[in-house]
Design a protein that fits this description.
By secondary structure, the protein is of the alpha+beta class. Helix content is 31%, strand content 25%. The protein has 12 helices and 21 strands. It has a 6-stranded antiparallel beta sheet with strand order 2-1-21-20-19-18, with helices on both faces. The chain has a 4-stranded mixed beta sheet with strand order 8-6-3-15, with helices on one face. A hairpin with a 5-residue loop joins strand 1 and strand 2. Helix 3 packs antiparallel against helix 7 and helix 4 crosses helix 6. The chain is globular and about 80 Å long. 43% of the residues are buried.
């Protein structure tokens, strides 16, 4: 009798388990997978969270520590991207103007040539045919010559605008000298990036050589090379230490042996200075001599040429697909400017958090200090990520946003990675047609980054 009762209880328990899975809408294998994940020894001292919702109803199907605030790295870009669509508009374009002060007589400009920037992160970017450095420089010179100017008595200047020229608080020293740590300035040039091209010897542990740079000259600063040769196939293990506004820095670490053109990318310490030097050189080459660059301009100018960035849909593609931090910081400041504030990181964060509060997400669930997720001091929750993604799915501009999401593990997911943190958030349609919105974050795991990603994917595979 006892054996029969135990058997009946087992059937009842099994029935309840299967019924519960059906009621929540989660696949039958989810519970076992989440139990395996939660008891993994690599997560013994970790903070982790996962939330899965039904994409059509918005109902939370399952969550573990969904309201735990964690550094989620670049998945944080989701909040900035969506807010930019909502507050700036899908067709938003940055607008940069080029003109002059004073007057033109007999080919002589008695005044200054002036650029009015807009914080455009695409100005001088190689990613778009119309924004490449050589195209921009040629267009600026052509506008001057079309106006009949052959000589300038004044200087090259940059118009002052209400834009904060600084990097966000909380960015670490090991990041800010490298290309992904470039700040968003009133004038951004070449995505505020420079490249060092290395040649490495045949033996491990020997000094490398910088054989060229991109651009061809670096205006007003230098980088001391302390990079050594490492094992073949070891990749880029170098770090550039170069502060904003600095005139010198250094690069250390290793690159593989036997390289003939290995590129390491840094962030320009002063993109305005680099741009003005390149522009003056281009004008002089084309017979319009300008003796020097000057300080900021504040006078009214006559416009000669206007550059408009690609629309937000295109900018957002690179922001999410290639995770370019510069684009996020520029969009965050543009959001602040559109709201009538000085275009600063702090004002942008305030507008961002207020916007999400209006959409029903508690401000305390988005404790952020930048627009890209680069600072390890950021804290966001998986539940807030899922809520933001659900909001986006209902908007008319959603197709462009969705198309910008990268594909990982066969799912549309924005990834996030900083030291000791991996995260994924996005959308997935299962083989049976069920649509999910999901977020998973893990911090302080005791395994390699690639191993924790594999464990996360094994969990998310249950949704396929």
């Amino acid at each position: 009798m006892k054996l029969l009762c135990a058997y009946i209880l087992l059937l009842v328990f099994t029935s309840l388990t299967l019924t519960g899975a059906a009621q929540t809408g989660m696949p039958a294998g989810w519970q076992k997978a989440i139990d395996v994940f939660s008891h993994d020894t690599a997560l013994r001292y970790a903070g982790w969270s996962v939330v899965v919702a039904d994409a059509n109803t918005g109902k939370i199907l399952t969550e573990r520590q969904g309201d735990l605030g964690l550094p989620a790295a670049s998945t944080q870009k989701i909040f900035t991207s969506i807010a930019a669509y909502a507050l700036l508009g899908r067709q938003y374009q940055f607008e940069t103007k080029w003109g002059y002060t004073g007057n033109i007589r007999d080919g002589v400009l008695s005044g200054d040539l002036v650029l009015m920037p807009s914080g455009d992160p695409s100005f001088g970017s190689w990613r778009y045919a119309g924004s490449r450095p050589e195209v921009i420089l040629d267009s600026l010179v052509a506008a001057v010559k079309k106006a009949g100017i052959v000589r300038v008595t004044g200087k090259l200047r940059i118009m002052h605008i209400r834009w904060e020229n600084s990097i966000p608080d909380g960015w670490i020293w090991q990041d800010i000298g490298n290309y992904y740590g470039a700040g968003a300035y009133a004038l951004n040039w070449r995505e505020n990036q420079f490249d060092l091209v290395f040649e490495s010897p045949d033996k491990i542990g020997e000094q490398t050589k910088v054989i060229s740079t991109r651009p061809a000259f670096l205006e007003g600063f230098g980088v001391r090379n302390e990079v050594l040769s490492g094992a073949a196939g070891s990749g880029d293990n170098s770090i550039i230490y170069l502060a904003p506004g600095a005139d010198s820095g250094w690069v250390s670490g290793t690159i593989p042996v036997r390289e003939k053109g290995f590129e390491v990318s840094g962030s320009l310490p002063d993109p305005e200075r680099q741009f003005l030097a390149e522009l003056r050189q281009q004008l002089n080459r084309n017979g319009v001599p300008v003796l020097q660059e000057g300080g900021p301009a504040s006078d009214q100018q006559t416009t000669l040429w206007t550059y408009r960035s690609p629309p937000l849909d295109s900018l957002n593609y690179w922001f999410l697909r290639k995770s370019i931090n510069l684009y996020g910081e520029a969009l965050l400041k543009a959001i602040a400017g559109k709201a009538g504030h000085t275009a600063s990181t702090a004002s942008g964060v305030e507008v961002l958090r207020n916007f999400w509060q209006q959409q029903g997400i508690d401000q305390h669930a988005i404790m952020v200090i930048d627009g890209s997720g680069l600072s390890p001091q950021n804290r966001i929750t998986c539940r807030s990520l899922v809520s933001a993604l659900l909001y986006a799915a209902k908007q008319p501009w959603f197709p462009g946003f969705y198309a910008s999401m990268p594909v990982y593990n066969g799912m549309r997911l924005k990834s996030g990675s900083i030291s000791g943190s991996r995260a994924f958030a996005g959308y997935h349609r299962s083989a049976n047609g069920r649509e999910y919105v999901l977020a998973v974050v893990a911090n302080n795991y005791s395994c390699s980054s690639s191993q924790i990603v594999r464990k996360m994917f094994e969990l998310l595979d249950q949704l396929k």
